[in-house]
Amino acid sequence: xxxKKEHSxxxxxxxxxxxNFLGYHFRSEERVRTSKNLRLSPDDLERNTxxxxxxxxxxxxxxxxxAYKPLKDxxxxxxxxxxxxxxxxxxxxLFVGRKGDLYVLLSKRATTLRSFAGDTxxxxxxxxxxxxxxxxxxxxxxxxEIGLPPDRNKVPLLCMLEPFYVEKQLLVTPVVVLVLDNxxxxxxxxxxxxxxxxxxLASFLSSTPPASIxxxxxxxxxxxxxxxxxxxxxxxxxxxxxxxxxxDPSENKLSKNGSANRNGKKRRSLSNSSLRTFKRSxxxxxxxxNGPVFRKRKFRMHQFLTGREAGGIKPVFGLTAAILIxxxxxxxxxxxxxxxxxxxxxxxxxxxxTSMRIAWAFYRPATSHRPxxxxxxxxxxxxxxxxxxxxxxxVAGVPDENAVFQKGASSAISGSRRLGQTNRIRSKL
Length: 429
Known about the structure:
Elements: H1 3-12, H2 42-47, H3 56-67, E1 87-96, E2 102-109, E3 120-121, E4 124-126, H4 134-146, E5 157-160, E6 164-166, E7 170-178, E8 193-200, H5 211-216, H6 218-223, E9 233-239, E10 245-247, E11 267-268, E12 278-280, E13 285-288, E14 293-295, E15 298-304, E16 316-317, H7 318-331, H8 354-363, H9 373-380, H10 389-396, H11 407-420
Parallel strand pairs: 1-7
Antiparallel strand pairs: 1-2, 1-4, 2-3, 2-8, 5-7, 6-7, 9-15, 10-11, 10-14, 12-13, 13-14, 15-16
Helix pairs in contact: 3-7, 8-10
């Protein structure tokens, strides 16, 4: 059998959704000339023939990602180190499509897995003791799951994004790379991954489905024009278990029956005197016994359809969607370091920021039903003495050093948490 026929036969034997792993790449053997730290430089975009056909938007995206640096106040910090045993990473692997657009590789998790079976995800997992860096973790996991080699010449680093927090008490760092070698073939680890496919990166900034979905599902897209049927992008807000927001008393005065006037829009932080015993006011508000009304903070979760749902592929959801939204915002920004603005609202009003959620995850008191694994890991790894708990407290939105651990304050926070348990949603890795 000729080499060409053998190659075609191998491609036919790949799982559905995997055959276009790198089929969009241009047939050039030239390898990218990387900088000393093996990050793709702006000059590489001009020199490498695989990247000649990039659209203007794609070139800007790669330049922005190649120059991207998380803000200085992003975690981890010297005053809040991350314990290795609670760290994880995912690989955001981009490649160039036929028309010069950027696509991201996504996989379908095996249905036999114990957690998040069948979900659409990015390759990734927890940091192993032998990993020298969080980048090594992402590359190792991608190699184990989909056979993407950890060769930094074939798959150079673009950037690393800010870490995300998931309810499994893990701190997940996205590592963004660009696949350049067009000779690579996927090797799926069947017990973990059953299919590999791609999705346009720019489509995570839009509520309009990409052209690929419009072509493959025209009837569904047409039915969804009135908002009653096919919706490419949706989002839901979920209760956060951290400190709530105090409604401004000048804008939200209590009426005689104890309900709050919702016309006011101003908010302010919790004060020490306000952390008392809480009572339920309505689905979204918690009332302190002395009068003030608090609103639970929310966090927003997004979902994007892939156009492959009829074939058993689930939508891009939760953590994966949040990471890809942030990647697209950083890449397609017209004026970095500011992020690009999608045509939908990314965060909930008064929502808990990622930094706030991470700080609270470290600061919150442990319970018999939910131990604080992050604090335990700090102790076990000898890092607890490096933590500045006062600074962590402020970022978490807790009013003073002892408030959360006082009886009344603990009741306030746990009362807010109980109201949100019925709406608890999983965050996936």
